[in-house]
Amino acid sequence: MGELTLGHFLTLSALLFVIGMLGVLTRKNILIIFMSIELMLNAVNVSLIAFGRYLDSIAGQIFAIFVITIAAAEAAIGLGLILVLTRRQDSVDVTSVSLLKE
Amino acid sequence: MDWATIIFYLLAAVAVLTAAGVVFARNPVHSAFALVISFLNVAGIYVLLGAEFLAAVQVIVYTGAILVLFLFVIMLVRPEDLRELNTAPRVQTALAWLLGLALFAELGLVIATGVLTGARGPYPPEEVAAAGGNTQLIGRILYSEFLLPFEVASLVLLVAVVAAVILGLPDRFLTGERARGLSLSLGHPTGADRVLEAERRGVPAVDAPDLGEPGTIDTGRAPVGAGRGR
Fold first, then answer.
1. Which residue segments constitute the domains of chain A, with CATH numbers given?
2. What's the CA dihedral at B87, B93, B94, B97 to 10 degrees?
3. Contact B16 A66 (CB under 8 A)
4. Taking the model in full, what pTM does it have?
């Protein structure tokens, strides 16, 4: 307790990342999987900014900006893919997408 | 315990709880709203870390743009397609928990025992204040030192926009067929889409009465609208 240390922020980041990973691994709804990926990217941002803050560097924040950019691009394309998917098979279940396996 | 620590614990607790809500909620709409709250709390954490610009970006881009996109897609997908799918095989769920706990244990070990080494950067808080603030400093660095990555990122966004538009187009635009009318269909063959599809196949889309050849009078046929049974 007491003063805030780097460990506080890194623990928060690790918790958020693991929760996001559980979401990706246990859920079958592709929308929830996308949200979990956003959670994981956000957790990485927290640790990047915390490292930057405790190393007196601004590069961590710059990197976080790029991560947010890529997350936005990924969300736009991913949600477009979800729309196409529901158009084709009327379901957001990822386990039913097995065309390449057959 | 100072105020910053208390605020950190509050923000972190809400962020983690709502993150768990995202993963374990039954309804995707509840997940999306939990994600909004989680992102807002993480924005508060950014403020604690002295990254005010990123906190604003987090609120605007994540909760403003990406989450609205998510809610739109949830609304566009038909509700019966969103039925409960939290039924991953039991082995997979157990394995996921095992791997998650293992990963967290590893990270915790590293965080507890690791020591932060590495060259200190040139921007301690006093320097940031001298540069005019967090936002001014980020702008200065982003447009000088990181100019090329910045331009590449803009290119990535352009490609993403084009890809999203192509993915959102109805099928007939992609198969080269000339579109006769634009409809707000989401691909389910209703309304104008059904008419176009029927025209393509050469079958009438609606049941029209057979009026016979123009200019001939067929006295044996009941006039249109004369009613049946006569």
1. 6-91 (1.10.287.3510)
2. -140
3. no
4. 0.78
